[in-house]
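ENTRY TYPE: paired fold submission
RECORD: A
CONTENT: sequence, then structure tokens
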Amino acid sequence: MKPSLVLHKNITVLIHILGWILMGTLFFLLTPLSWNVALPHQFWVRQVTFFILLIGLFYINQHLWVPNLLFKSRVGWFLLLTIGVSVILMYFLEYYENWLGLPKLMHQAFHPEEEYIPRKKPLPFHIFNLIVAFLTLGISTSVAAVKKWQADEFLRQQLDQQRIKSELSYLKAQINPHFFFNTLNNIYSLTNIDVERAQTALHKLSRLMRYVLYETEKGQTLLSREIDFIKDYIELMKLRISEKVKINLDIQEQMEEKCIAPMILLPFIENCFKHGISSQQQSVITVKLSEKDQVLHLYTCNNIISSYSNSPESQAKGIGLTNTKRRLSLLYAQRFQLEIDDQNPENEYRVNLKIHLA
């Protein structure tokens, strides 16, 4: 068992013990001591017995009745059982007090000069005892509800983390393997033309692959590393595109070093190259990245090539963006803004993404 779990369990046990000590002191010790009367030992036996019964009632309700009845929408049965058991407990306590001869002993303790005459009570039990029993059940139910909420929240977080990991794995696989093979072929061709440029490209490819394989295993990475990854990716993509494609790259030089989810920006840039270039016509890809007041702003723009409008790649783009939106929602909740404009006279696909990195 992990040390943190052991510590949490020990703290929980300690809280329960301190809670029972506090409750026992308030309801079963302080008030009788304030009477300034020599109480018979039978009274303290009754107090201890009632206290033990309340502890049993507390944990039976927490571990049996609440999970099996209340949490399963059997509210009527839960109320009937708890009220019924409380009333039965009061009758048992009244019978136990009479068996101990406590009414007569208490009368002798408070009024030693008067003769004890049994009197009929308005109720067959003490209403104060019933209130204490209901209070115990209420606290027990609240504790069970809080524990269930914590367990559900922990499970939700675990599921979210698993979903994030699976989607990150999907994102890794989303980088087309042909990109690596084609880039290697281009680098191989460069070795006969420009060895130095080929070496530089090979270095960038190795850095990109290392980032994909290792850096993304972490939950977050430094913004500077994510930007270097994007630059390397774009530089390698330049080896594959023709001169008909113009790339406008504007990345702010100095940015505040923050943490960011790895590869959260790549799908938008990757889509520019997947669906915004053509070997037959002129096309422009614009990528702008800036940071101000802890807000990262990514802007991408590319021409919408008509030949891709009904292609399988176009469908893949939609799936990729859906996946990315879901990942943004999981990781950044209300701390991001995403605007996509693909309906404009210029026939361009524009993305405006803002992420608050605080």
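RECORD: B
CONTENT: sequence, then structure tokens
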Amino acid sequence: MELTRPTQLRNHLRGFLIYAAGDTAAALLLHQFSWLRLLGMALVGGILYSTEVPAYFRWLDRQQPAAEATTRVKRWQRAALSLLYFNPLWIARHYAFLGLFGGAAEPLSLALLPVAGRSFLLNAPVSLAANYYIQNRVTAQRRFMVSALFSGVMAVSYALAAVWL
């Protein structure tokens, strides 16, 4: 399923707003709010994430269409493939963006990898359940928005984990 221009525009706008809101909530909780971070994460969500996440979901639909995921095993496979996309390297990249826009002295460091790995493992059960729902119950047109909302919630979790872990 190719995205129409209005759908792409909606995804960009939703990514801009949802990712910015999730990260802003995390930054406020950690007393790390900055306008640069807000704008940077809004741009990452509205340009990068809103482009690559729907593209991955379209690839996933081509590999294993939701309509054909009639068995429990196939539905869990769709969820697992989605979870694998949001892997420790994806999380480390997200942390690097947080550091870059949050003014960290070394936003790109290999030290992000163990933290991202622990974050991934700690959040895997919740993420797998959420991805099961997103991939098997949400329509293709709304999948990015629901995933972005979940990611906004997880942004709070990842931001807190970066400090706690």
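NOTES ON RECORD B: The chain is about 80% helix and 0% strand. The chain has one domain: 5-164.
STATUS: closed
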